[in-house]
Write a structure and sequence with these properties.
alpha/beta, Glutaredoxin, five-stranded mixed beta sheet, globular
Length: 192
């Protein structure tokens, strides 16, 4: 019975996410490659490019910020001990549920050298900006408002959100897809 409830809940959540995506999309057709996952699971063939694997050098991203100014990831990596690239969207329920953990990590470790860079997969500028305010996200944000076709998501082969990549000061990827308390535990180990 529990399995049926869990499967039913997952199906309802996936349907809601897919409906929101259809509502947010300006295109008339959505390819299977663009469909969001309910969980943070990589789709088949969705492995990150070689440069974004743990142990490799990060891939730079440059996208418009909230005010339209260009925000470049490389402007932050190297200036901070660690930089967390956080892929999210205002319409993503799991992203909103995860955000308090990211906010807490930022509050606890920003003064020690952690920077967070938000990469939004939104399509609507107003929804994006409102979510940043509602979720209390004071760190730099970027988005080309391309949704699942966002250049940032494409460069990192993001097929599900929330997703993130943790980069050290030398530009090496040291972790990815840290969720919940796992993010706080890793930061406590790296920045005691």
């Amino acid at each position: 019975m529990k399995k049926l409830l869990i499967v039913g809940f997952a199906a309802m959540l996936l349907a809601a996410c897919n409906q929101q995506k259809v509502n947010d999309s300006s295109s008339t057709a959505v390819s299977e490659q663009q469909e969001p996952e309910v969980e943070n699971v990589e789709a088949e063939g969705a492995a990150m490019p070689e440069g974004t694997e743990i142990g490799n050098k990060y891939v730079d991203i440059e996208l418009p910020g909230i005010q339209g100014n260009m925000v470049r990831l490389s402007d932050y990596v190297g200036k901070n001990k660690y930089t967390l690239v956080d892929f999210w969207a205002s319409w993503c329920g799991p992203c909103r549920a995860e955000m308090p953990h990211v906010v807490r990590a930022y509050a606890e470790y920003h003064s020690k050298g952690l920077e967070v860079i938000g990469v939004s997969l939104d399509n609507d500028h107003e929804a994006w900006v409102n979510a940043i305010e509602q979720l209390n996200m004071p760190w730099p944000q970027m988005s080309d408002l391309g949704g699942w076709d966002s250049m940032g998501a494409t460069l990192y082969k993001v097929r599900s959100i929330p997703s993130n990549v943790l980069i050290d000061q030398q530009g090496q990827i040291v972790a990815k897809d840290l969720r919940g308390n796992q993010l706080l535990q890793i930061m406590a180990e790296l920045m005691p």
